Amino acid sequence: MLTPHIKAENLGIQFRSYNNPEPTLRESILRLFHHNKARCHTVDALKGVNLEICDSDRIGVIGKNGAGKSTLLRSIAGIYPPSTGSLEITGNVIPLLELGTGLEPARTVKENVFLNGAFLGMSKKDVELILIDILDFAELGEFENERLENLSSGMKSRLSFSVASAVSPDILLLDEVFAAGDASFVKKARARMLEMIEETNILLMVSHQEKIIRDVCNKAIVFNKGAIAYTGSVGDAFDYYKEEVIG
Question: Beta-carbon neighbour count of residue 38 at 10 Å?
Answer without folding.
Answer: 13
